[in-house]
Design a protein that fits this description.
mainly alpha, Cytochrome p450-Terp, domain 2, 13 helices, 3 strands, about 5% strand, globular
Length: about 290
Amino acid sequence: MAGEKNAQIEPSEQLRRASEWWTTEIIDIKPGSIRMRGYAIEELIGRISFPQMIWLMLRGELPSAEQSVLLEAALVSAVDHGPQAPSISVSRMAVTCGLPLNGAMASAVNVLDDIHGGAGEQCMGLYSQIAQHLEGGMALVKATEAGLEVFVAEFGKMIPGFGHRFHPTDPRAVRLLALVDEARQKGVIDGRFADIGRSVESVLEHQKGKKLPMNIDGATAVIYSELGFSAPLGRGLFVLSRSVGILAHAWEQSQQGGRIKGPMPPSIPYNYTGKAERRLTLQQTTNR
């Protein structure tokens, strides 16, 4: 019996097993002591920025000041994109349904998946595939074409990170790429993924006969790749960033009030495409 087996274990052995149940290199807490990756929390507070803290928690070491600036720029750029963004609208609707801020934020974050919220991670995966072709000796254009071919075969013709349904040119991407170029000139990054991103833009224009400018997802994918983050962490960083906008909109809606607000005003009808009006016949009823 399980209970009999547990009863035979010495208390010291039970304590050892319990202590080893979870292991972490991230934090060490003792009475009166909190150390994050080895650093005392009181030494970090007031001395490092929030982006530096994010880097430390995810990577185990502190970034350089220049790396932190680039990470911060990417985080700032993706904070919000208006109430038409599903995650933002969900946060506002959730508040009008009575949810507190934490519930509204959780509801909104849960819609940040492959379609809404996943483009940056997917774009990082594409860039990584192209980088592998480059390491195999391919020229940049050929490597880009090969990477796109593999991506399209697996995921379809829509290439994440390029083109935008709203912005002819995404102003966030323009600024981010300018910062990437500055960081490259200073030797903060080597610029390999910046070259890859621009090559994808060029090859797509040649293939489709029109320009699909790099958007924020493509530009942040360049930055996160240049800084050495894995693709899944790219999505996690986007979620961190967008959570700020989600919180701001949830709070604003809580101050504005409103009750059970749907995605459209009741005065604007939806498009019904079902059967025309009809009546139940006597033959269809159940005898009771």
